[in-house]
Amino acid sequence: MEALFSVLIGIFFAAAVYLMLSKFLVRILLGVAILGNAVNLLLFTTGRIVREVPPIIPAGLDRQFAVTANPLPQALILTAIVISFSFFAFLLVLSYRAFQDLSTDNANEMRVAEPEADSAPPTGY
Asked: What is the pTM of this model?
């Protein structure tokens, strides 16, 4: 099962990098969302995927005698889900406002600081 998740994590990371290298804001946003999911799945996979024994130590014992799932990555994933959702919502609003002001979602056409109609800067003095 962990080998399958490792392959799936690699596919998620590859798709996220491919989408984030795009010049369209919607694809970049989808890449950020997929990257967050890939990191969450990576944390989940590192926490040992075991369902048979809960990570609870019985009364009177000092440690578990069976292999259990690590609860720390699961807690980190819950926190990461909230943070990645809020970051995605912020980027979504930011890209919508940029689209409203500039009437495009192409990052190459959003070069307000570098208009194409101006002459090139001097190459030497």
From this structure: 0.75
